[in-house]
Amino acid sequence: MDVVPGIEVWSQFDHDPRSPANAAMRASDRDRAVIETVLADAFAEGRLTRAEYDERADAALASRTLGDLVPLVGDLPVSRAPRSSSGDLHQQAVRKWQSDRREALLGLIGLSALLWTIWAVTMWGDFPWPLFPMGFALMNLVRVVVNKRDIIEEHTRKLEKKERKQVGQAEEEA
């Protein structure tokens, strides 16, 4: 279950967990999923470290009552504005491409360091075979850089599709 853009998180519960009258009520799997999605979004946005996310997600899964869920997201923004702006989606797609480029570069550097170290320790003077795997990693990096526009457009289409799906789910639940 995804947090639906433009809909406050608390409205996705059958009973508002912030209300003292509902705090002792047993939490459902759906209630836990709403909180887990908020936590996942906060982790993806850099608001939580991996350790904080893991700790809070485990606590959400182990929670018994609605009142147990509220403190897990008390310091996080729990509602979103609609993300229908194409400029916002484009910026997200550009950030995803930048991440892809960074991963390709780090893959090339890491692979190169590892393979050249192995070659230097075990086969110094023999044919420099690390050139071949490095070539493939370099080709991947070049592909990501050269196809920037196409990759960004593809990421934008995926984000638009995801947003349409979330809006459709929100309409079904309403």
Short description:
The protein has 174 residues and is mainly alpha-helical. It has helices at 29-44, 50-62, 66-69, 86-122, 131-146, 148-173.
Structure description:
The chain is mainly α. The chain has six helices and no strands. It has two domains: 65 residues, no CATH class; 88 residues. The radius of gyration is 23 Å and the shape is elongated.
Keyphrases for this structure?
174 residues; mainly alpha; 2 domains; 6 helices
- Please indicate the count of domains: 2
| Run of helices and strands | HHHHHH
Number of strands: 0
| Overall morphology | elongated
Helix content: 55-70%
Computed over alpha carbons, the radius of gyration is 23 Å
**What value does the average pLDDT take?**
85
Question: Structural class of the secondary structure composition?
Answer: mainly alpha
Distance between the termini: 15 Å
Question: So how many helices?
Answer: 6
Q: What is the element layout, followed by pairings?
A:
Blueprint (H helix, E strand, L loop, with lengths): L28 H16 L5 H13 L3 H4 L16 H37 L8 H16 L1 H26 L1
Helix pairs in contact: 1-2, 4-5, 4-6
